[in-house]
Amino acid sequence: MNQHHYPPIARPLQWAMAVVFSLLGACASVPAPGTYEKTASHALTATGDTTLGQRVQANFGDLGDQSAFYPLVDGMDAFVARMAVVAAAERSLDIQYYIWHNDTSGVLLIGQILKAADRGVRVRLLLDDLDTEDKDAFLARFDAHPNIEVRLYNPFGYRGNRGVGFAGDLKRLNHRMHNKSLTADNQVTVVGGRNIGNEYFGAVAHTAFQDLDVIGIGPVVGKVSAMFDQYWNSDVVVPVAAFGVADISDSERLQAARNTLEQRALQYMDSDYVHAIREEGVLERLKLADMRFYRGRAALLYDSPDKVSATAVTAETHLAPQLAPLFTEAQGEVVVVSPYFVPGEKLVTFFGELVAQGIRVRILTNSLAANDVGLVHAGYIRYREALIRSGVEMYEFKPSPNQITRNKKWIGSSAASLHAKTMGSAHSRVFVGSFNLDPRSIALNTEMGILIENEAVATQLHDTFDIMVNRQAYRVELVDGDLRWVDPAADGAPQTYDTEPHTTWWQRFAAGTLSLIVPESML
């Protein structure tokens, strides 16, 4: 499954099959409301007496209208933090993700969730249906637990190949849920850019995804819980049980899930990754009393779950207009980290206007060699020169050495890639979440993120940005009307390239050709 937020583009054979079986995909429909059981439920709020509630009170006291945040930059830290939060839960777990891989991190985390349910924790697991192909049987077994319910966002009626499903209902199914949050006992939440999979948590030796989450405590947690409730009870969300996958008893289904998890979890607990976590001292590093949290007011920005049926981009249903003040009220400097960056003419003009007002605008996105979605890079290059001409400072994330020698795939995963999605302004506010500055995040997929008001966090973002662009990025410049890529971290003197570094002629030709023909609405 793709590690980005774009629906898969099938291989030619798959597309041929999709055409042949399009009638099958079109005829398969999502179960209609009223034909299945779906009970509304809401976040549990009386949780101050839980272990997490008591720890939060002991360490933070009364936060008032402020929340507290701890940035999770390192992948191992991000994984262990999730495991620890789930292990500490006593009343409830509300979990929402776009991708959940069936790998080391995915299996260990789902195993920890099963243990929580066994000790009486109510688990609500909401997944986007794009990534659940071939997982229906396991999810149905997991859902059989009396304390666990699994629901799917904007599900496919046809439960087989997703390409076939798209062929039958592309307009609806092109809208996906890209949100990422994990909340325990309505006391602690983890929000950011990471899906659940080895590549996001440093669990693959040759993969180096650069990403960012935050642990949130205080009033922001209640906001995340309220947002989760909106999604969970939305008409766009369907219980996995509505698809009638299982044909055996609940107890048999649950035992089958346990057997699968226990066998694989036992194997993974002896993996090099788990040994590395222990050797790195991650568990000691993430003790609540010793972690440095930053306090500040925070707003949760998110798309409505009904965005799938919205006809216009408005602040009532879309995140993008809610995020606009971060830029319109900026003073001094704006930094943007967006792995998938397709600004469009209006945003190019807007950034140029900011520069004209004396605001420094710096943007970091993936280079062609580092981008795991070459199709999106084709959309980005339409605007690269115009941005630079308007005074915007453009940087492109460099590939890792592993990636440079890798055979590029236009759709799929690359060995290393920028995946963090964060924006900041004036060393005072910073946004962390799932939102990219591209048409898909703006108009199609649902997104979420936290806008934090804290000078130290914002300054840390700017400092980290400086480090990244000086060590891990090319600065893209125009010299006599031609693009140049400057690598300041090259051995010896900075190295300049007159073509996109570490790419082949074919990659550059393909990107240029696609930039001329691919509709921007599909990006």
Task: List the defining traits of the structure above.
ten-stranded mixed β-sheet; alpha+beta; 523 residues; 37% helix; nine-stranded mixed β-sheet
Summing up helix and strand content along with how strands pair, one would put the structural category as alpha+beta
- Give the uncertain stretches in residue-range form: 8-15, 20-26, 402-414
Shape: globular
Alpha plus pi helix count = 20
What is the residue-mean pLDDT, rounded to a whole number?
88
Q: How is the main sheet built?
A: 10 strands, mixed
First-to-last CA distance: 18 Å
Q: Count the beta strands.
A: 19
Helical coverage, percent range:
25-40%
| Fraction in beta strands | 15-25%
Q: What is the CA-based Rg, rounded?
A: 23 Å
Strand order of the largest sheet: 10-16-15-14-11-12-13-17-18-19
